[in-house]
Design goal:
alpha/beta; Rossmann fold; four-stranded antiparallel beta sheet
Length: 226
């Protein structure tokens, strides 16, 4: 099976108050296309940093990153930004929807930023909103949607560019149990439908246990793969 994410000797060090802090320590891992993986560990274990490095939101201090067969480690910023927009979808605990825009407009936004054909983006946005059960709420603004509905809009937005990789950082952290289950179910269904590789960071061990695979982190290292 194809390796969609490849990390080679990745380390990340921050300087805080003139002290060097190692967030990631010499991580090497290959992840095959289509896998669904929950990333767990205590606060400060390096989970979110790992996600940010894989998603090219941050650059590693050392090491190489390969996404969909492309070495993005030394890619120039502008090229990297374009690559990220087309190849990686993101969902965060705070859904970061734009308050002044409707659900449909929020879903379309990455495509509009990429100057993709508006007709195609509009069609796909409507299709995605229907797939997350919100086609009747497409003209509502975020303030008119529940927390669970807002997160479903964020899921649809993350998929508008048909990325092969989806990264989710505590996407159910602010949701009640039913909404959390709905989000998990949707993510699984959509990733299966579009053959998307999913990495989801969570503190919820019950949620993590429902994933086919887990990565457990401690002190900036991967200590176990299940």
């Amino acid at each position: 099976m194809q390796t969609i994410i490849g990390l080679q000797n990745i380390s990340k060090t921050y300087t805080i108050a003139q002290q060097k802090v190692a967030a990631l320590r010499d991580i090497s891992i290959d992840i095959e296309a289509g896998k669904k993986i929950a990333v767990t560990g205590k606060s400060g274990a390096g989970k979110s940093t790992l996600l940010h490095i894989i998603g090219t939101l941050e650059r590693p201090s050392t090491g190489k990153i390969f996404l969909a067969g492309t070495d993005v480690s030394t890619m120039p910023d502008q090229m990297l930004s374009s690559f990220r927009n087309s190849s990686v979808g993101f969902i965060f605990q705070m859904n970061n929807l734009l308050a002044e825009f409707t659900a449909l407009e929020n879903v379309m936004m990455p495509g509009l930023i990429a100057s993709a054909p508006k007709k195609e983006i509009l069609y796909r946005a409507k299709e995605l909103l229907e797939s997350v059960g919100l086609h009747k709420r497409s003209n509502h603004r975020p303030s008119e949607l529940s927390g669970g509905e807002q997160q479903r809009v964020a899921i649809a937005r993350s998929l508008i560019m048909a990325p092969p990789i989806l990264l989710a950082d505590e996407p159910t952290g602010n949701l009640d149990q039913k909404s959390s289950e709905d989000v998990k179910r949707l993510l699984f269904e959509l990733c299966d439908a579009y053959n998307i590789t999913l990495l989801l960071v969570t503190h919820d061990l019950h949620l993590a246990s429902q994933f086919p695979h887990q990565i457990i982190m401690e002190d900036g290292m991967i200590i176990e793969r299940i």
